Amino acid sequence: MRRYVSGQESTERTPFKMIDLVKEREELIKKHLAGASGREVVYAYTQLVDKFIKEQWEGIISPTAVDEVAIIAIGGYGRKEMSFYSDADLLILHVEKPSVVLKDAIVHFVQSLWDSKLKLDHSFRTIEECLQMAKREFFAFMAMLTPRFLGGNRALFEQLIQTLNKYLIIPHRREILKNIWERREKRHQHYNRHTYFLEPHIKEGRGGLRDIHTLRWGTIVAFGREELPFSSSKEKNYLEVALDFLWRVRNHLHYLSRRENDELSFGYQEEIARFLGFKDSPGIKAVENFMRAFFTHT
């Protein structure tokens, strides 16, 4: 990996960080297998990825170029919902005319993350490019609704939020909310087919994680905040319990698959049921009790 020290480039190799990322993920998997909550695991893995990305970035970026860019977590990574093999959605926000030094640093930064086996979904854009992308691509826009600043120029990060609010959210609030709702309805129609009742999709299915994301997106657009407007503490507790259950199921599905996977197919249902402690009851198999619980939570 290339390193920059006082603007001078060196070629110091640091393989230990790659080993640490893999090793610490395996340690977190052990905690999951020992009974850690779904929330605890997704937050801990997000923090692990945060730490790794920041270390890589701070070791590579030249002090002369740091004000030209902001490193931003978006999407599921921005929401701190990282399961073991989730993509790290990263927005590399840069000034209109980035220097050669910055461009070179970004190439080596991205390569260092790939070399570490971190699943990366990244983009390299200006604020204007982000605005135009948000106008064209619904999910790219939704991903930018939950950004987290990781490094670089914080003022650039704040400027992106202000720009999206001024030129997109405020003048088009009703239209955006309508679009969010209509897409939810279409998704429900698609995943309402019989096959998805037998092998549900944890993320996209009715009552799954995407429905909770949709509530957050709507709340951000309508009220300018991420906290959902619960009518009571009981309602909030119901959602938190359901979320934790879904995250636990998803974490174990990633562990069993050794890849990003949100499809609760037959091949995994019995093993996840055993892991979660479901037992046979009179006339009902453990896996059936598990699936009943799954649909109760969704």
TrEMBL record:
It comes from the Bacteria. Keywords: Hydrolase, Magnesium, Multifunctional enzyme, Nucleotidyltransferase, Transferase. Residues 178-297 form the PII-uridylyltransferase/Glutamine-synthetase adenylyltransferase domain. It holds the Pfam family GlnD_UR_UTase. CDD domains: NT_GlnE_GlnD_like. SUPFAM superfamilies: Nucleotidyltransferase, Nucleotidyltransferase substrate binding subunit/domain. InterPro entries: NT_sf, PII_UdlTrfase/GS_AdlTrfase, UTase/UR. GO terms for molecular function: [protein-PII] uridylyltransferase activity; hydrolase activity. HAMAP family: PII_uridylyl_transf. This is PII-uridylyltransferase/Glutamine-synthetase adenylyltransferase domain-containing protein.
